[in-house]
Amino acid sequence: MAVTSESKAATRSLWYDPKFRAIFYQILLLVCVLGLAAYFVSNTVQNLQERGIASGFGFLTTPAGFDVGISPFIKYDPTKATHGTVLLVGIQNTLVVSILGCILATIIGFVVGVMRLSNNWLVAKMAYCYIEALRNIPLLLQLIFWWHVCINILPQVHDTYNFADAVLLNNRGLFLPAPIPEEGFGVIWAAIVVAIVATVFMVRWAHKRQDQTGQHFPSFWAALGLLIGLPLIALLLAGVPLHLEYAAKTRFSLSGGLIIPPEFLALLLGLVLYTGTFIAEIVRSGIQAVSHGQTEAARALGVKPSVTMRLIIIPQALRVIVPPLTSQYLNLTKNSSLSLAIGGSEIVAVFMGTSLNQAGQALEIIAITMLFYLTVSLAISMFMNWYNNRIALTER
Amino acid sequence: MNFKSILVATAAAGFMTAAGVANAGILDDVKKKGFIQCGVNTGLAGFSAPNDKGKWEGFDVDFCRAMAAAVFGDADKVKYTPLTSKERFTALQSGEIDVLARNATWTFTRDVKLGLEFIGSNYVDGQGFMVRKSLGVKSAKELDGAAVCIQTGTTTELNLADYFRANKMKFKSVVFERADEIRAGYDAGRCDVYTTDRSGLAAQRSLLSKPDEHMVLPEVVSKEPLGPLVRHGDSQWGDVARWTLFALIVSEELGLTSANVDQMKSSNNPEVLRFLGVEGKMGEQLGVGAQWAYNIVKQVGNYGESYERHVGINTPLKLERGLNQLWSKGGLLYAPPFR
Questions:
Q1: pLDDT by residue (tens digit) across A146-182?
Q2: B188-205: per-residue pLDDT in tens?
Q3: Which of A51, A264, B37, B176 is the 20 to 30 Å CA partner of B230?
């Protein structure tokens, strides 16, 4: 009996071997998925051909022939630009608003998060109201609201708010003086680089000294002095090789200087205020996650409250804060695509919007746009994971 | 075993759904489902906009209704898909809609490269500029440096760049996706100029908070033959659409109106009799009922009736017939004979 069952098992063992079956099913699944994907691709290609729809990436070098709203760094000339240029401008605008948005949202989030824990009733309740109101309204609605605020509440061109002729505000945008570098401006760049390098060394030296002697060095203020002071001295020594370009009145509006259009303002405002609420909650929960014993121990040792917060609570809270903070940064970046609804100039609006319509190459353009968002999101994740590892608890 | 069968079933279902996209004739498909899916503007007064009862109305909507009258003998058998200028061609390419009547300009690229087919032009237009009277601008040549509100993905966007370049002027474009956003922006003074087809300007001006404070500049900077489109490659459906448009024009030429069409069935004019399906087999040849043209005129009216009802001089748009007058009266409307 035992013998027969063993020989039977030997012949059928391959099929009943769990390892083999697991691999077999995985391969089967893979083949099915790949087959399905191949089928969809070939079906799409065939359909496009049958309907006589052109395909390929050649459109990137054909002239675009339309204007984009803003382009802070890349020079955009509607008479020469191609759809490739439009793509670059879209990427640039998305990155600008995302980076600015992440920085500002973090600042707001930290401030409001700490306010929420304040012992002052009014401060805590104000933070609470802000968070609960803004995070429970859909972002798209908020963006449209801010856009309408910008164009309807800000004054018309002829009643522009004028702050000393330098900062002008109307419903065409915020006009700031633009610094235009002259010859010899390279010295200032050099001074900035030197200041950064010096700061890094100074901070390292201060740490080392504190480890060895226990003496504290005010490295924050020293770094601030270096980073601002050194370029400022270089600027003065070089005889201020730069002038400011102010916005000037033209027949219809204002031109020149640095123009931040209301669409951009509304987008930035909406994204920052919305994401700020989530970051505030993350910060609050992070701080509350640090055991109260830490604060009590610090007090028992006579550490000042401000130092307790900065050197004992926050570094421990950061370990809880950073992972969810990463997803807020990702959200903010992806949400910038909503600028489409308020006439923004981000990649989804100009490239996936206007270029798609003018060139008609829907599949290619959407694929490029998705690839861009994927790349940016993965880059943010990588950076934040690196930062998370750096601040993680080092066990000795 | 159970797992295996689920896997097989899933894969099979996946393949079958994917293979289900077959191309039968659109006319047959439309007849089978019982209505025409028509792509229209999300809201352009006079051309296509829902009325206070939520029913779509307008000059472009009338074209969809005329097609439904031709195919089903009932102008109400239409379902509308409101589309932005950006979505419109993709919706047609993908088969989401059967016909697009959404004041789209007939251009080479759109006809040739996008796999679409313009079946004619139901409104001959040209791009114009609207400004506030208080600006004191008398000509488009004075617009150097102006901020221009414009709809994304339109030919006007390209014409604008061309016009300013040709006249060595600069402009700042403020781009929106929907006409109502542009109107809100222009009304609030976000931009100095609103540019689109002149019919569109008339429509938008009628909806501004103070229409009398705005004027359309005299320059017409482009040719904009607006017309309905179908997908390329189905000539039968294309013929139905094309001859629906011609039927609207010819009925005006023959003096047929929704009021007199019943009496005209006993007319002496053989072309009228052929047209109304009293004699000959035109409807059958087209693949629709013999009464198709009669139904169009009876339920929708002729071209002129539709024009005067929605965009004409007695509507808020106050558009003269202009080029959209019959060829015999000095306009551009011309249709091949029904023979």
A1: 999 998 998 888 888 888 888 888 888 898 888 888 8
A2: 999 999 999 999 999 999
A3: B176
Contact B172 A262 (CB under 8 A): no
Contacts of B172 in chain A (CB under 8 A): 67, 253
Residue A40 CA: distances (Å) to CA of A55, B14, B24, B270: 16, 10, 20, 54
Q: Do B165 and A79 touch (CB under 8 A)?
A: yes
ipTM: 0.74
CB contacts under 8 A, A 20-39 vs B, are: 25, 28-29, 32, 35-36, 39
**Where do the structural domains in chain B lie, given as residue ranges?**
26-124+225-329, 127-222
Domain range annotation of chain A: 2-50, 83-155+262-391
CA-to-CA distance for B75 and B65, rounded, in angstroms?
A: 5
On whether the CB atoms of residues B266 and B279 are closer than 8 A, the answer is no
CB B203 within 8 A of CB B47: yes
Classify domain A83-155+262-391 at the CATH superfamily level.
MetI-like (1.10.3720.10)
Looking at domain B127-222, its CATH class is alpha beta
Same fold across B26-124+225-329 and B127-222: yes
Q: Do A43 and B114 touch (CB under 8 A)?
A: no
CA distance A35 to A37: 5
What is the Cα–Cα distance from B23 to A200, expressed in whole angstroms? 67
The dihedrals phi and psi of B99, each to the nearest 5 degrees, come to -150, 150
Interchain contact, A36 vs B11, CB within 8 Å: yes
Please tell me if residue A69 touches chain B, with a CB cutoff of 8 Å: yes
Q: Sort residue B34 into left (φ over 0), alpha (ψ -120 to 50) or beta.
A: left
Cross-chain Cβ contact B145/A69 below 8 Å: no
Give A345's DSSP letter.
Answer: -
The whole-angstrom separation of Cα B3 and Cα B95 is: 36
> Does the distance separating the beta carbons of A357 and B85 come in below 8 Å?
yes
pLDDT at A8 over 80: no
Please measure the distance between the N-terminal and C-terminal CA atoms of chain B and give it in whole angstroms: 68
Q: With CB atoms and an 8 Å threshold, state whether B161 touches A65.
A: yes
Amino acid at B30: V
User: Which distant-in-sequence residues (6+ apart) come within 8 Å of B190 by Cβ?
Assistant: A151, A171, A172, A262, B147, B149, B174
A262 interface with B at CB cutoff 8 Å: yes
Look at A251 and B144 and tell me if their CB atoms are within 8 Å. Answer: yes
3-state helix, strand, coil in chain A (%, to 5): 70, 5, 20
3-state class (DSSP) for residue A126: helix
Tokens read off for B171 = 């402009």
Cross-strand bridge partners of residue B44 = B48
Window A:327-366, CB contacts with B under 8 Å: 340-343, 345, 349-350, 353-354, 356-358, 360, 362
CB-CB contact of B57 with B50 (8 Å): yes
Helix (H, G, I), strand (E, B) or coil at A394: coil
pTM as predicted: 0.78
Confidence of residue A271 (pLDDT cuts 50, 70, 90): very high
Encoded tokens for A231: 């370029």
Give me the residues of chain B with pLDDT under 70, please.
1-24
Neighbours of B213 (CB within 10 A): 11
CATH topology of domain B26-124+225-329: D-Maltodextrin-Binding Protein; domain 2 (3.40.190)
SS3 content of chain B, % helix, strand, coil (to 5): 40, 20, 40
Distance CA A106, CA A273 (A): 10
Pick the residue from chain A with its C-alpha nearest to B4.
Answer: A25
What is the SS3 assignment for B36? strand
Mean pLDDT, residues A266-280 taken together: 96
